[in-house]
Amino acid sequence: MSAHDDKIYSGSGYMHMKGVALSILLMGLSLVGIIIAYLLYGYIGPSFSAERINVQQAELRHEYGLPPREVIRNQTILLTPPSMRNLSQNSING
Fold first, then answer.
1. Of 86, 61, 79, whose CA–CA distance to 70 is shortest?
2. For the segment 49-83, what is each residue's pLDDT rounded down to a tens digit?
3. Residues 6+ away with beta carbon under 8 Å from 46
């Protein structure tokens, strides 16, 4: 056996694994935190974000004196990015 093999097989060869173990522990704790948050709040989905945007836009329109705007409630429209809502199907498919 060489000197290199002696270092590998000696008892202190796994000291560098403490960082790996701590990283895995931290990832596990993060996943537990995410699961707890999911259990407490439940699935909020895209409707939460859409409703929050509607509230923000209404507040800003009132603050700057702009006329009110129609609120979009259709889920298929809300799931489509605003930049792609006005495109026709022909232009999307090529």
1. 61
2. 778 888 998 999 999 999 988 887 787 877 788 78
3. 75, 78, 79
Write down the pTM of the prediction. Answer: 0.44
> DSSP secondary structure string, 22-91?
HHHHHHHHHHHHHHHHHHHH---HHHHHHHHHHHHHHHHHHHTTPPP-PPP--HHHHTS-GGGTT--HHH
Copy the structure tokens of residue 5. Answer: 């093999």
Using the predicted structure, report yes or no on whether residue 89 has a pLDDT greater than 60: no
Amino acid at the residue 78: L
Amino acid at 80: T
- Nearest Cα neighbor of 50 from 20, 67, 75, 86 is 75
Residue 68 contacts residue 58 (beta carbons within 8 Å): yes
